[in-house]
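Re: Re: ligand-bound prediction request (bumping)

Still looking for help on this. To restate: I need the protein modeled with D-malate bound, output as structure tokens. Inputs repeated here so nobody has to scroll up.
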Amino acid sequence: MVKVNENFLKLPGSYLFSEVARRIRVYQEAHPEAEIIKLSIGDVTRPLVPEVVAAMHAAVDEMGTAEGFHGYGPEQGYEFLREAIAQGDYAARGVDIQPNEIFVSDGAKSDCGNIGDIFGVDNVVAVCDPVYPVYVDTNAMAGRAGEYQEELGKWNRLVYMPCVEENGFSPQPPEEIPDIIYLCSPNNPTGAVLTKDQLKVWVDYANAHGAVILYDSAYEAFITSGDVPHTIFEVEGARTCAIEFRSFSKTAGFTGNRCAYTVVPMELERGGAKLNTMWNRRQCTKFNGVPYVVQRGAAAIYTPEGRAQIMANIDYYRENARVIREGLTAAGLECFGGVDAPYIWLKTPDGVGSWDFFDQVLDRANVATTPGAGFGPSGEGYIRLTAFGDAQATRTAVERVANMFR
Ligand code: MLT
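Reply:
Sorry for the wait, this slipped through. Here it is.
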């Protein structure tokens, strides 16, 4: 008789964003007249920029010719894209990352989950609380999280690093020394960022203890503050302790295109093995690469025109973030994040529970949000709003929520 992976049976409920989508659907069915504005899942709304569209069109045309046809590509990504990333995202910031340290993939979400394949089940994993649920759920599926404690909303083998108002939503090195540390800056969901000095503390800590930092930098394009590094490899010592995840999803509107990349430096070794070699082996075995057309589209953002066009979209979302932050603050609500990040972390008034506030805002303002409690116990008492919506709809949503408090 087949045995299932029983770790899956320990997972509570459904994946956060599926549950939020389900609740919105149920509400919409019961209130067909409601014009719901979604500031819930962080999905982009601006169309692909012209440079990307032109590059993808050209690639499709190429694929329709005998000479230009591409079958299976390199599992690690085409050289033209890896080279463009090495130059555009790293050398341009004075950081030396070689193309053979870059692995192009179909998403940072997949990579953040799949990276667990190269680590043993016995490792102690530290996550921020609140946290992007993919880190927790994928470790739970792999058997690294132990048992779920319903009453605490926590897994008993994970180390939780509270990110709360008192510490500026910034994780502190835990007492129990972990082997794997997930950090995300700009942070999903709180919108907080780690400065270079703060990140240096983590790099030194990881090197001192032989830990590995899994650094999710999917929202890097939103950084405006000068002291916030755009890549962990701006920090001295990171090449011996960090893996970085980056994505074209939020940077270039690729949520529907699927393209991201992961950097595994050559110097990163644990247990006598090069993690770059292990990740390469994993990818070659389980992954057949991102479509040629998509990679051509991604490479187009590294041209001067492409760069200017995607930054105009980022500015559009940044303006949404400002509208949300300032509009809701003026209505007397307490907002965090939204400066170097597309997420606004809003404290619920009068200590109302996250899911209750989610229901109230959905019902009274017809605005969909994401309950903070869904990101971990320390997210209770908050909701997350995203700046990825249409500008007019975002202004209307802010007005409607603000009206709840007038
Ligand atoms: C989010 O809303 O947190 C993100 O869009 C989810 C994701 O990137 O997978």
